[in-house]
Design brief:
Pfam families: GCFC (PF07842). By secondary structure, the protein is mainly alpha-helical. It contains 26 helices and 4 strands. A hairpin with a 2-residue loop joins strand 1 and strand 2. 20% of the residues are buried.
């Protein structure tokens, strides 16, 4: 208890000295110091709590090697020393160690208060030695000691850097603090005080700056007002001077000048007024026209409805085009399948006819050669040829029986078309054809009638033409419809065979009727009709029907078949009638005509064969040679007649060259010349004359026939000479009638004069 007052007194001394040296003591106690480049972790100083609890202030420090301890009476007291060593850069504080008495503690604290500001500055030799020691410590390079701990406070490092800028530690020597360093209560209080003082100083500085700025602005305003007043005073003075300056002289003024200026001014104002008046009138006119346009638009009927119609028509056209683009692939495939089926059938029949002709001709040649017969008089025939001959005879027997049942007894052998198929082949053909037609019905089964029916499509466009004819004709719909309708018409023509007599005519087809009605309704409005709708049917036939006819002619048509030729000519006449009113020549039509001529030429060269046998082989009309020759002649005559069926479709020069030049003069006349004159020859000549078109001989002024019939007329005259001296004298009159028919009137009259016969009638003579 006796020590209580001393401990309290000593605490007051320490507290009284805190303002002078406490901060330095705590900082020096926390910072380590080393002399030889080695640093150790400094112990954390014990704070105020331990000082109060134990009544003592404990501090520990490391002394520099060159510093001497300071004290009185053998007792160690704490001193603050500043080391100038650039490597350490720290303040070394020394304290006494061991137990102290209260008296010594108080005296020591008083000495600390008195000696705390004392600082020893090292000399140049000490600094040079420290610098050399640092350089030696850096020499190992890659070696870093694990026992060395660098503890350098921020403030000491700054001071050392300021003293020696060259002693900055390298990057790897710097200590990186990852957590803030704990602060004492006094440090925190000092930091808060400094922050408040800085804020107050900043606010005071801002207030001062604001006051200075306001004063500057006030000075500027005062100077500007002073300058304006000065300018005004100067200008007023100058005006006053000018006003009272009598030295200035003005030009003389009189009434004429004033009047002239006023007139000029008045003229300018009048011109400006007139221009404004014109603009005003123009604006009034624009206003009136705008009001009229508004009234017309308001009174116009159903613009929204018209817009809906055009939009619906546009959508309809786009949909039908998309539909047809999707279906055209199937249509082309079906057309190809049907075409292939018909082509195979046609090629099979043609090959069979040519094989049978070769087989029968070779058989008859073998009959003509006696040396090829066997000992018993029978002909050695190959089994294949024998089978072919039996099939030929069986088909002829069937046709004969069919003619007898129908009552056509005047039919000649060889005039029939040998195009019959076996029951198995017919069944297979009809089955394949039925499958194709069944697939054809499925093409548009998922399509509405408005998009696949020709009549419904034309009704849509007819409504457009009736409601808005101007836009209809401006869109050139008449030129687009043929291409639009072509896929639909091709589907309907898939089952159409122009080579069959029972096939429906083009003018009876639904699409033909619908297009005709559409064209007739367009002709009622003659004022706005531009002629495009009148060409729809001809364009459809030209782009759709004529190419299909061309395909049939080139590969499927058999010119030797009278039924096919008649049916084909009928359909061609219907198609060509649509081109009669057009002056322009259709390329597709020309291609069709060229194909017809080429196919008939090929048939004449490949199918016509009339053999000439010796008289011994032709004895008797029932001999095989005579029958074969007769059949071939009548077959050639049938082709002659089929060629002349194209009269009116092909040019006359082409027909005369084909029928008369290549067939009549080359084959028929030669065969007739080799025959025995008689009623059969006259009958054949009469059949030839009956095939000739009457149009070739319509000119009443003609006295001679056409040049291609010259050989035929000569043969008729020779036959008449031979028959006049025989028992067939009455056949001469028939020859004269033939001459009259072909307009060989001069030859007919001379023949009648040489052979007195019954007088010819005026109709026969053509007079």
């Amino acid at each position: 208890m006796a020590l209580r007052p001393q401990r309290t007194f000593r605490r007051r001394q320490v507290e009284s000295s805190d303002s002078d040296s406490d901060g330095a003591k705590e900082q020096s106690a926390e910072e380590p110091a080393s002399a030889g480049g080695r640093t150790e972790g400094a112990e954390r100083p014990r704070g105020a709590r331990s000082a109060r609890g134990r009544g003592r202030v404990w501090a520990s420090s490391r002394r520099s090697p060159g510093a001497a301890p300071r004290g009185d009476g053998g007792a160690e007291c704490r001193t603050a020393e500043l080391s100038t060593d650039e490597e350490e850069g720290t303040h070394t504080l020394t304290e006494s160690k061991g137990d102290r008495s209260p008296s010594s503690d108080s005296s020591c604290s008083l000495e600390e208060k008195d000696l705390s500001p004392i600082v020893e500055i090292p000399d140049a030799a000490f600094i040079q030695a420290a610098r050399r020691k640092r350089e030696l410590a850096r020499t190992p390079g890659d070696y870093i000691s694990l026992d060395v701990i660098h503890s350098c406070s921020t403030s000491d490092c700054k001071r050392s850097n300021e003293e020696d800028p060259e002693s900055d530690p390298d990057d790897h020597e710097k200590r990186i603090l990852f957590t803030p360093k704990p602060q004492t209560l006094r440090q925190r209080m000092a930091e808060e005080t400094s922050i408040r003082s800085e804020e107050s100083s900043e606010e005071s500085q801002e207030d001062e700056n604001q006051d200075i700025w306001e004063q500057q602005q006030m000075r500027k305003a005062v100077r500007m007002l002073a300058g304006q007043n000065t300018d005004l005073s100067h200008s007023s003075k100058s005006q006053i001077l000018k006003k009272f300056d009598t030295s200035i002289s003005f030009p003389p003024v009189n009434l004429e000048i004033i009047k002239k200026q006023l007139n000029n001014r008045l003229t300018l104002l009048q011109e400006s007024h007139r221009s404004h008046q014109r603009e005003y009138e123009k604006y009034e006119q624009d206003i009136k026209s705008s009001k009229t346009a508004i009234q017309n638009l308001e009174s116009a009927s159903d613009h929204a409805q018209n817009y809906r119609f055009y939009r619906g028509m546009k959508s309809y056209v786009e949909n039908i085009i998309d539909c047809l683009n999707e279906k055209i692939v199937s249509i082309v495939e079906l057309e190809s399948s049907m075409y292939t089926l018909l082509l195979k059938r046609s090629e099979a029949l043609l090959k069979r006819r040519q094989d049978e002709l070769k087989c029968e001709s070779s058989y008859l040649q073998q009959l003509s050669r006696k040396d090829e017969t066997s000992a018993n008089g029978s002909l050695a025939v190959d089994e294949k040829d024998q089978r072919i001959l039996e099939e030929i005879e069986a088909r002829r027997m069937q046709r004969r029986q069919a003619r007898e049942l129908s009552g056509s007894c005047d039919h000649q052998e060889g005039m029939s078309s040998d195009d019959e198929l076996s029951p198995a082949e017919m069944t297979n053909f009809h089955k394949c054809q039925g499958d194709i037609l069944q697939d054809c019905k499925k093409v548009f089964e998922d399509v509405h009638d408005d998009f696949c029916n020709v009549q419904n499509i034309l009704l849509k466009f007819q409504q457009w033409r009736e409601k808005f004819p101007d836009s209809y004709y401006e869109a050139f719909v008449g030129f687009c419809l043929p291409k639009l309708l072509s896929p639909l018409i091709r589907v309907q023509l898939l089952d159409w065979n122009p080579l069959k007599m029972d096939s429906i005519g083009l003018d009876k087809m639904p699409w033909f009727t619908a297009i005709t009605e559409f064209m007739e309704s367009s002709m009622e409005d003659i004022g706005k009709e531009d002629g495009s709708d009148k060409k729809i049917l001809s364009a459809v036939i030209n782009k759709t029907v004529v190419p299909r006819l061309t395909d049939f002619v080139e590969t499927i048509w058999d010119p030797l078949s009278t039924s096919q030729t008649r049916s084909l000519t009928v359909h061609c006449r219907v198609a060509f009638e649509q081109f009669a009113s057009e002056n322009e020549v259709s390329k597709n039509k020309q291609d069709l005509l060229k194909s017809i001529v080429a196919r008939m030429k090929k048939s004449i060269e490949d199918d016509i064969f009339i053999p000439l046998y010796p008289k011994s082989s032709e004895e008797g009309k029932m001999s095989p040679h005579s029958k074969f020759q007769e059949r071939q002649f009548w077959g050639a005559l049938k082709l002659f007649r089929n060629i002349l069926l194209w009269n009116g479709l092909l040019p006359d020069d082409t027909l005369q060259d084909l029928g008369l030049g290549k067939l009549l003069n080359r084959y028929l006349i030669i065969s007739l010349t080799n025959a025995v004159p008689g009623p059969d020859v006259v009958k054949k000549c009469s059949q030839i004359a009956a095939c000739l078109p009457e149009r070739w001989f319509e000119n009443s002024a003609m006295r001679t026939s056409i040049p291609q019939l010259e050989n035929f007329i000569k043969f008729l005259l020779q036959s008449a000479q031979k028959l006049s001296s025989s028992e067939f004298r009455n056949e001469v009159s028939e020859i004269i009638l033939i001459l009259v028919k072909v307009k060989a009137l001069t030859q007919a009259e001379s023949l009648r004069e040489e052979h007195p016969l019954e007088p010819l009638t005026a109709q026969s003579t053509g007079v």
